[in-house]
């Protein structure tokens, strides 16, 4: 689920993000739950990059929950994590637990640092939960919302920024089809969901 390059490169097109985020899982994690968790997470990141509020991101996840095939992924996207306590959140490393923990940390906090610390202090597979949280939260808060001293300690930060800029610049030039990528037939996103919707920027 460390897939931020996909939504950065496809942020202009929600449906394309969904399909390419799904494809990014298939090489190493072809399980349906993994594929749909990645597809959903990438799409939520794209929404955040488009300026959606966190509330709008949660709302879109709830709409998406009825359109995925994995019951576990559907349950997470439905938002039931919103009423959970810290002790009810697992960071085992299992993809469904990771998605839930990242969404929970994002929903429970109001800034990047607070959410990041909450995510990684769940322990266990802390680096994965932190990474998955950080992709979504970074899209919501932007670079200026990340503590400057954290960025200052980031190895090769200039290279990372340059790569992100290059990915951003190719947005709108990519496409994918089930003819060229037949493995994507495993998912059937509802195109209507990715059209006009009330999730615009705040």
TrEMBL record:
It is an enzyme of class 3 (hydrolase). Its EC number is 3.2.2.-. Keywords: Glycosidase, Hydrolase, Magnesium, Metal-binding. Mg(2+) binds at residues 125, 127-128. Binds 2 magnesium ions per subunit. Its cofactor is Mg(2+). It comes from the Bacteria. GO terms for molecular function: hydrolase activity, acting on glycosyl bonds; metal ion binding. Pfam families: ADP_ribosyl_GH. Belongs to the ADP-ribosylglycohydrolase family. This is ADP-ribosylglycohydrolase family protein. The lineage of its organism: Bacteria, Bacillati, Actinomycetota, Actinomycetes, Micrococcales.
């Amino acid at each position: 689920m460390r897939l931020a390059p996909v939504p950065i490169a496809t942020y202009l097109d929600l449906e394309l993000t969904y399909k390419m985020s799904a494809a990014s899982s298939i090489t190493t994690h072809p399980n349906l739950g993994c594929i749909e968790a990645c597809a959903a997470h990438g799409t939520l990141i794209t929404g955040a990059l488009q300026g959606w509020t966190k509330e709008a991101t949660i709302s879109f996840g709830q709409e998406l929950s009825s359109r995925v095939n994995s019951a576990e992924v559907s349950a997470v996207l439905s938002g039931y994590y919103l009423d959970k306590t810290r002790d009810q959140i697992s960071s085992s490393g299992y993809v469904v637990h990771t998605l839930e923990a990242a969404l929970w940390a994002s929903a429970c906090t109001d800034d990047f640092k607070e959410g990041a610390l909450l995510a990684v202090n769940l322990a266990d597979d802390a680096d994965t939960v932190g990474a998955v949280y950080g992709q979504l939260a970074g899209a919501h808060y932007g670079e200026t919302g990340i503590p400057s001293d954290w960025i200052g300690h980031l190895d090769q930060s200039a290279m990372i920024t340059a790569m992100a800029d290059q990915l951003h610049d190719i947005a709108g030039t990519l496409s994918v089809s089930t003819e060229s990528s037949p493995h994507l037939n495993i998912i059937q996103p509802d195109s209507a969901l990715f059209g006009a919707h009330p999730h615009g920027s705040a």
